[in-house]
Amino acid sequence: MKKVEHIGIAVNSLETAGDIYQKLLNTGIYKVEEVASEGVKTAFLKCGPNKIELLEATNPDSPIAKFIAKKGEGIHHIAFDVDDIVAEMARLRAEGFILLNDEPKRGADNKLVCFVHPKSAGGVLVELCQEATPGD
Questions:
Q1: Considering the chain, what is the average pLDDT of its residues?
Q2: What pLDDT is recorded for position 131?
Q3: 130 contact partners, CB below 8 Å, separation of at least 6
Q4: DSSP character for 38?
Q5: In this predicted structure, what is the pLDDT of residue 133?
Q6: Do residues 80 and 96 make contact, with C-beta atoms less than 8 angstroms apart?
Q7: CA 41: distance to chain centroid?
Q8: How many other CB atoms are found less than 10 A from the CB of residue 128?
Q9: How far is residue 104's CA from residue 100's CA, in Å, rounded to a whole number?
Q10: Residue 134 has what pLDDT?
């Protein structure tokens, strides 16, 4: 793993949370997009080399809606940048981690992603991210 790619924060409203984080970080949102397969709309902010991803549910059955219903708004996951997501997934499986995805899938911000189950990562939902290339 190369670095922390971003921290994901579950929010009820991108508009409300976006206003808060833009003021807090003194920067603007640089990208908003929907990931229909996950039932989520995302907004990204940069603070120096760091990124924050705000996550709003687009339907009541989405993982973000369920997270907020159970735990309220707040930190949802930490994402790590990797060079080879398939190799990293194999390494983590061999180390005994439980992965929520059998294969990498398309995520927000032009990434291939895979999630590590919080039960096998000390209670933290971990996301692996690799920059997608054309054809991924």
A1: 95
A2: 94
A3: 81, 82, 83, 84, 85, 104, 111, 112, 113
A4: G
A5: 86
A6: no
A7: 11
A8: 26
A9: 10
A10: 78
Residue-wise burial string across 67-92, b where 16 or more C-beta atoms lie within 10 A, e elsewhere: bbeeeebeebbebbbbeebeebbeeb
pTM here is 0.90
DSSP collapsed to 3 states, 64-130: HHHHHHHHCCEEEEEEEECCCHHHHHHHHHHCCCCECCCCCEECCCCEEEEEECHHHCCCCCEEEEE
For the segment 2-37, what is each residue's pLDDT rounded down to a tens digit? Answer: 899 999 999 999 999 999 999 999 999 999 999 998
Question: Residues 79-127: pLDDT tens digits?
Answer: 999 999 999 999 999 999 999 999 999 999 999 999 999 999 999 999 9
Cα 110 from Cα 108, distance rounded (Å): 6
The single residue listed with the structure tokens 């707040």 is 74
Structure tokens at 108: 């927000």
